[in-house]
Amino acid sequence: MSTSLRMIMCTALLTCVCATARAQEGAIAVPNAGDLRIPARSRLFISPIEGGYDIYLSAAMTKKEVPLIIVTDRSKADFELTGVTETDKAGWAKIIFMRNTSTAEQASVKIVNLKTDTVVWAYNVNKSSSARGKQSSSEACAKHLKEKIEKGS
Amino acid sequence: MKSTILSFTLLSVMSSFAFAQSAPADKLTPGAKVFINAMTDNFDTYLKAAIEKKKVPVVVVASRDEADYEIKGTAETQKAGAAKKIMLGSWHSDEQASISVSGIKSGEIVYAYSANKKNSAHGKQSSAESCAVHLKDEIEKNAKAAR
């Protein structure tokens, strides 16, 4: 085999190795059962939550720039988010004595890795006087999820 | 022999790069066809009116099959109770709404927004217009970035 042919083949091999390495950086590694990481750019499906809270969560993740791709089809997702939420409207006593019309919000969410069926993250939020109702509680969830992803553990 | 090796080399290099590149995120652009799903308390009607009023550069279609994107959303109104009217002197309702826009083909959420208006001057109209204004901003931002 001539030297030029050998050089071409070496270059091709090197290019393939580099490209594969690049792909692995962006791709989602198949996690082990004990792997609690949520890699950036993973695909997340948000299950419908009572009162349309799933939509508030989508909006919060967009606003807080959570590095995930939110998908509407569960079969295309790597992770699934489920949750519950509850709103307590301000009663007359709170309005009269505290002059406060804000609602009290609580929510709880968890993320499951669909490949390993492991709960990789869960978070509770309780806002006794939520400035912006469901938006505030969903943004708290999004902020903490972003921290978890950026921490990478 | 040489040409076979060269072809193989070219093919492997091209396929490696195709594999390495992640698919670009779907983005809302002017002229996109949008289908608005039915929402709680007929918020979809308010949203259509707001999109029209704020001149959001999208085409709202009546059938999901004709659309590139779909909007899902939810809205909630809290009317002023007697205590609020007497103690705070406010008759206005508190409004909250949230919308998400997803690509029908990609199944990815490309934009989402939540609005919360205390003492909303025009009830659902205000929250719908807030959603429309921010949707317009997003489309214009994407159009600028594409230029």
- Helix-strand makeup class of chain A: alpha/beta
Superfamily at the CATH H level of chain B?
ABC-type transport auxiliary lipoprotein component
Low-confidence stretches of chain A: 20-29
Structural category of chain B is alpha/beta
User: Helical stretch count of chain A?
Assistant: 4
Report the order of strands and helices of chain B.
HEHEEHEEH
Largest interface, C-beta within 8 A: A-B, 43 and 41 residues
Count of strand segments of chain B: 5
How would the global form of chain B be characterised? elongated
Query: Describe the biggest sheet of chain A?
Result: 5 strands, mixed
Q: Can you tell me the CATH class of chain B? A: Alpha Beta
> Roughly how many Å is the radius of gyration of chain B?
22 Å
Can you give the mean pLDDT of chain A?
Answer: 84
Helix fraction of chain B by DSSP (H/I, runs of at least 4): 40-55%
- Largest sheet composition of chain B: 5 strands, mixed
Tell me, briefly, the overall form of chain A.
Answer: elongated
Read across the widest sheet of chain A, the strand sequence of neighbours is 2-1-3-4-5
- Count of the domains of chain A: 2
